[in-house]
User: Fold this.
Amino acid sequence: MADVAKLAGVSHQTVSRVLNDHPNVREHTREKVLAAIRQLAYRPNAAARTLVTRRTHTLGVISVDTMLYGPTSMLYGFERAAHDAYFVSIASLPALDRRSMLDAVDRFVGQGVEGIIVIATHDSGVAALAHVPPEIPIVALGCGTHASTTSVAVDNETGAATATRYLLGLGHRTVHHVAGPSANLDAEERVSGWRRALREAGAPEPPVHTGDWSAASGYEMGRKLADLADVTAVLCANDTMAIGLYRALAERGLRIPDDVSIVGFDDIPEARYYTPPLTTVRQDFGEVGRQALRALIERMSGSAAPGLRVRVPTDLIIRQSCSAPA
Assistant:
């Protein structure tokens, strides 16, 4: 830092103010310091700064080791929101239970992280959160309305209800549902939204067909649905299961949307390239990340008590996989 100050012709304190983005620095002076930093390829010593400020500018993320679109998109959305101001350290666990959760929290606390995000989309993860000491700043993602701690989640229930109402509005007598795993909180809320929309409309409520988020399970559920004469509309709890459903219906000679209308959930990048392009419920994971960072900063500063629940709305993206019943 002394070399930068000498080259720029300013004091050591001025360089420090520029590095910390202090407002009381003239623009001309700031530019001279930044030019000297570039010329010398200077990099601040993070360890020294931590000793002085007692801040690591590091956040932790605890997640289950998975390639599912929702959890990985939540992680990416949070990283993008935080990258300008914080380093992000990730603990990817085989499962989120009480023991593994507390071990990961202890490890992060030992590393000096300032706050922790937990991507808890299963009921076991939410149960484990209850054992984390309340003084540790934590925000849960993807846990619906179930976590007792501060949480940020997509409004799955309203998204599923909106999709169901859309299909009913096209004239379908009822809407069948291919759901995700029963222990998954996103799946549970989507079932609730689908069921609520049917009941509000006075429509028949068919049995739930439960998959595991995979295209293979969507295919198996699709084969069962193809045997039912009254199936004209299906809400899939994710777009990947909808791929399997497309295949199963095509093998039975059923056309989409002429014979069966389909709505997915997620709006994965491939959804617009299905044949026909898939109508689906889009989740704004970028906004989830921004809201999670804001909530975590409030928890870290002590300006917000645990228990705040933020819900991020969804959008129904209408494409060519739906039409009025034949």
The mean pLDDT is 87. The chain has three domains: 2-44, 55-154+285-312, 156-283. The first strand starts at residue 58 and ends at 64. The chain is about 45% helix and 15% strand.
